[in-house]
Amino acid sequence: MKKCNFCGEEYGSEELLAALNGPNVYICRGCVAAASKIFSGDLDNAKIEADAKKLLTPKELKNVLDEFVIGQDRAKKVFSVGVYNHYKRIFKQNIKDNDTEISKSNILLIGPTGSGKTLMAQTLAKFLDVPIAICDATSLTEAGYVGEDVENILTRLLQSADGDLEKCKQGIVFIDEVDKIARMSENRSITRDVSGEGVQQALLKIIEGSVVNIPPKGGRKHPNQDFVQIDTTNILFVCGGAFDGLEEIIKRRVGKNILGFNQEKRGKSEESELLNLLEPDDLIHYGLIPELIGRLHVNATLQNLSRADMVRILVEPKNAIVKQYEKLFAIDGVKLSFESEALEEIAQLAIKRKTGARGLRTIMEELMTDIMFELPDFKGYEIVITLDVVKGGEKPLFIKKDKKSA
């Protein structure tokens, strides 16, 4: 294998690397083509090829997610492959000289609230330096009805890209709470379901890939207004939702196909095992229209977080909550410490609230507010959060760092 000295990629001898003057100095055909386009003034294509060189592998993308998202290994692997294939399709589709066109694959994340769906999308968008727009599906309605037009999602994406249209066309749109726009029943109703099936129908066009006219500053469309045209062909759409009750639909379907003792065993399966048996028909029974499911090709399921996972979320990620509070205290010259039993109790309280990892931040704010109110007065101290502080509202330990006295 020989390495290109410009992009760093390794190639076999059959890749016809051009040898430059000097020992072991090479340049690949891709870098030669990019340089040629720069000198000819074709800067846009040169930039696309340069971005293709920087595309991370699925393993590298998962390693990034591992630094910020605890657990959910299977979901992170599926998500990393989906994101990699999407940007590989944009940047490297024309490398092979044939007529096969790679179609777009959007992603559906299914999991309980606070399990990391939004965080996964935010993490990779930030690391890949692409704009991301996050919206709540429950705020969307069909065009012409009171609420927010579906096209306003793209306005947010353009704003996230600071008005850079080309960057916007390669961004990520995360639509949360997509399960809340399930239609009211599997049978079509004579009444309008403007925030359910109607929104799903409105999403079809922009998710699949089309040119959409949007008002640059958002709001409703009106005559004599300037519009910005956005091609959504290369925008990655990620939909997320808790889908409460989906396990019961899967259980009923699986139970019909299994006889004898296995049927009873399957009926008592844990929710995590049931979600792994998900099929498109289950989502149709839940209330998503087949056309929308057909545009969300990649499905990943996230599991409920255990107490051990909650404790790891508190201390392990790069932006862990405990690390953030330690920095806040350090700015005031105070060292912050947590006993392991205190962290376990905080995790248990979050599980009881049934809001996933989001509950950890709320509990920590409630716990630390009174302490931080007096924080500037304890410069030079170490403050230790014990189990009694979390359970009984007792005062933390205040240790003077130089005298080592409580």
Q: Can you walk me through this structure?
A:
The protein contains 18 helices and 14 strands. It is an alpha/beta fold. The strands form 5 sheets. Strands 6-7-10-5-11 form a 5-stranded parallel beta sheet. It has a 3-stranded mixed beta sheet with strand order 12-13-14. Strands 1-2 form a two-stranded antiparallel sheet. α3 packs across α5 (117-128). The protein starts with a strand and ends in a 6-residue tail after the last strand.
Overall body shape: globular
Low-pLDDT segments: 187-192, 258-269
User: Termini distance?
Assistant: 63 Å
For the biggest β-sheet, the strand order reads: 6-7-10-5-11
User: Helix- and strand-based class?
Assistant: alpha/beta
The strand count comes to 14
Question: What's the rounded overall pLDDT mean?
Answer: 81
Largest sheet report: 5 strands, parallel
Please compute the radius of gyration using only Cα atoms. Answer: 26 Å
Measured as a percent range, the helix fraction is: 40-55%
Number of helices: 18
Beta percentage is 5-15%
Task: Give keywords.
three-stranded mixed beta sheet, single chain, alpha/beta, five-stranded parallel beta sheet, globular, 18 helices, 406 residues
Task: Annotate the secondary structure layout.
Layout: E1 2-3, E2 10-11, E3 18-19, E4 26-27, H1 29-40, H2 43-53, H3 58-68, H4 73-92, E5 107-110, H5 117-128, E6 132-136, H6 152-160, H7 165-168, E7 172-176, H8 197-208, E8 211-214, E9 228-231, E10 236-241, H9 246-256, H10 261-267, H11 271-275, H12 280-286, H13 290-293, E11 298-301, H14 307-315, H15 321-331, E12 335-338, H16 340-353, H17 358-373, E13 381-385, H18 387-392, E14 397-400
Parallel strand pairs: 5-10, 5-11, 6-7, 7-10, 12-13
Antiparallel strand pairs: 1-2, 3-4, 8-9, 13-14
